[in-house]
Amino acid sequence: MLKLPLPTLAAFAPTIAYLKSRFGIVTIERLALAPPPQALSIAHHPKAKQDLSHEDYLSIPTLNQSPDDQACREAHLRGQFLARQDRWDELALEISAADKDRKITPGGMPVADLLAYGARSDVVHGVEHALQEGRKAGEAPLTNGILALEAVQRDYASEPLITLIVALAHIDIGWAWRGTNWESVAPTAHRSRCAAHFDRAQHLLSPLCGIELDSPLLAAARCALLAGQRDPQSRIADDYEDLIDLDPYNHRHMRALGNHLLPRWFGDYPQLELEARRTASRTQDIWGAGGYTWVYFDAIAADEQACARVDVDFFIDGLRDILVTRPDQAMVNLLAAYCAVALQHAPGLSSEADLQRMQIADCAKWLIHDHLTELHPMIWAHAADGFDNNSRVTSLNRFAARGRAYAMQTIADQFRDDIEQGLHVTFTPTGPQLHPT
């Protein structure tokens, strides 16, 4: 029996929803357009007769199109191109090389994941669009693509990575049948089709072992299969341990583990705490205390009880250690946006959680003052959505503008006293500088 406690794809790695929101290649449904934060009204500023725009008192370099965005797009398009040209041997070689070398984009996305996603994206998108149009099971738009991939798998049965691509396509299609509405219960027919695709993915992946093949991509696919198992709680710790040990520099695996250890998925709070500490111990030489932080990172943003239980001092130590390993501006923006924006969702449900959340949110101050030198608006926009990768982005420019508005407001709040004294804040490579306007 398929276990699908929540419909989101956000925690899975690789995740098709993340890539769609990243590249803006799906123009459907909605762009969350909550009104952006309002500019400060500075009572004692010389221009106080009218509200000021952020640019009147803040200057910071902004990177709307980062090198990571371009690298992600290029890898995705490369996988898509090779699949469209039926150059499967070449595709398998490139994925294998990227997987074994742990090749990543500047922002840390595994290139093997991106290539594999590109290779199956046409098929998965075709199914998603057909379902949106109300097509029924068995109709050609829902079956032709995956049947073509199955034929490729038969031709390359001895190539594990081609089999893996087909299995990942089944997982993605299974979730497409399940749907992404958090509250809804999928119709019986849809649940049946979802289960069938997960079962087929399980059958394809059963002979393959990520440890034996030294493949984080395969190990990640094993973790994605947990949603289709009868007793995922018995497997989650071991499967994610294999994945994290294979690729300990990739923090996304640890974040996915923490999310899946929530009671709404496959775990419970004591197991979450245990695995966070075990992960920190196993990755200490790389992340210091950061392994603990990564495991709790998404969990405490989504769950009040997890937030109330987290060891705040350990978590904050981990934030500092993460920046020792990854001091780049993409990471600084991620952590600052997390503390200042992502943790602000749904406060007030638990006083204990709110106290914990406030202590972590306060870290935005030193992250911005001591480490921030440039702005990455897309990261802040995703944080404003609570890192919900199922949010449909219809305009990347508007999405980025929304993220920039949140970031500028957050920065302005951190320098409110200086701004009220009529000072202008300029961010330089050595940090923020204050000077009269």
* Radius of gyration over C-alpha positions, nearest whole angstrom: 22 Å
Estimate the mean pLDDT confidence. Answer: 85
Number of strands: 3
Distance between the termini: 65 Å
How much strand? under 5%
Q: So what's the oligomer here?
A: single chain
Describe the protein:
The chain is mainly alpha-helical. It has 2 domains: 1-30 and 67-106 and 111-246, no CATH class; 34-66 and 328-437, no CATH class. Helix content is 59%, strand content 3%. It is built from 21 helices and 3 strands. A 3-stranded mixed β-sheet has the order 1-2-3. A hairpin with a 2-residue loop joins strand 2 (423-428) and strand 3 (431-436). The longest helix is centred in the N-terminal third of the chain and has 22 residues, at 111-132. The chain is globular and about 70 Å long. It starts with 15 loop residues before the first helix and ends with a strand. The model is unreliable at 1-50 (pLDDT under 50).
Write the layout of secondary structure elements.
Blueprint: H1 16-23, E1 58-59, H2 67-84, H3 88-100, H4 111-132, H5 140-155, H6 160-178, H7 188-205, H8 216-224, H9 236-246, H10 251-260, H11 269-282, H12 284-287, H13 290-302, H14 304-309, H15 312-325, H16 329-340, H17 351-361, H18 363-371, H19 377-384, H20 396-414, H21 416-420, E2 423-428, E3 431-436
Parallel strand pairs: 1-2
Antiparallel strand pairs: 2-3
In short:
The protein folds into two domains: 1-30 and 67-106 and 111-246, no CATH class; 34-66 and 328-437, no CATH class.
What structural keywords apply?
mainly alpha, three-stranded mixed β-sheet, 437 residues, 21 helices, disordered N terminus, single chain, 3 strands
